[in-house]
C-alpha cells in the first residue's frame, strides 16, 4: 500500500525516493536509468521499487463504518 520507509533486506532509507521515481517513470524515462540516478544499486532496494504496487488511493476510498 505505502512504500516502506526502509528496505526490508539492507535497511537503507528509500521512501523519500518513491515520488521522484514514480514521476520520472510516468514521464516515460527508463526505470533502470531512474533507479541508477537515484542511487539504488542493491538488488533488494531495486526489487522493492519495481515490485511495489501503490494501492493507497484505492484503499482510501473505503472507510470504517
Task: Describe, in plain words, how this protein is organized in 3D.
By secondary structure, the chain is mainly α. It has one domain: Arc Repressor Mutant, subunit A (Orthogonal Bundle), CATH 1.10.10.60. The protein contains four helices and no strands. The longest helix is centred in the middle third of the chain and has 9 residues. The two termini are 21 Å apart. The mean pLDDT is 91.
Largest sheet: none
Query: What's the overall geometry?
Result: globular
Number of helices: 4
Would you state the CATH class? Mainly Alpha
The CATH architecture would be Orthogonal Bundle
What's the number of domains? 1
Radius of gyration: 13 Å
Q: What is the CATH homologous superfamily assignment?
A: Homeodomain-like
Q: How helix-rich are the residues, as a percent range?
A: 40-55%
Order of helices and strands: HHHH
**Content-based structural category:** mainly alpha
- Per DSSP E runs of 2 or more residues, the count of β-strands stands at 0
CATH structural fold name: Arc Repressor Mutant, subunit A
What is the overall pLDDT average? 91
Q: How much of the polypeptide forms β-strand, as a percent range?
A: under 5%
Amino acid at each position: 500500500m505505502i512504500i516502506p520507509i526502509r528496505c526490508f533486506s539492507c535497511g537503507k532509507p528509500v521512501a523519500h525516493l518513491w515520488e521522484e521515481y514514480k514521476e520520472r517513470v510516468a514521464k516515460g524515462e527508463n526505470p533502470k536509468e531512474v533507479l541508477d540516478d537515484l542511487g539504488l544499486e542493491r538488488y533488494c532496494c531495486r526489487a522493492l521499487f519495481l515490485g511495489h504496487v501503490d494501492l493507497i488511493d484505492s484503499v482510501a476510498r473505503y472507510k470504517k463504518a
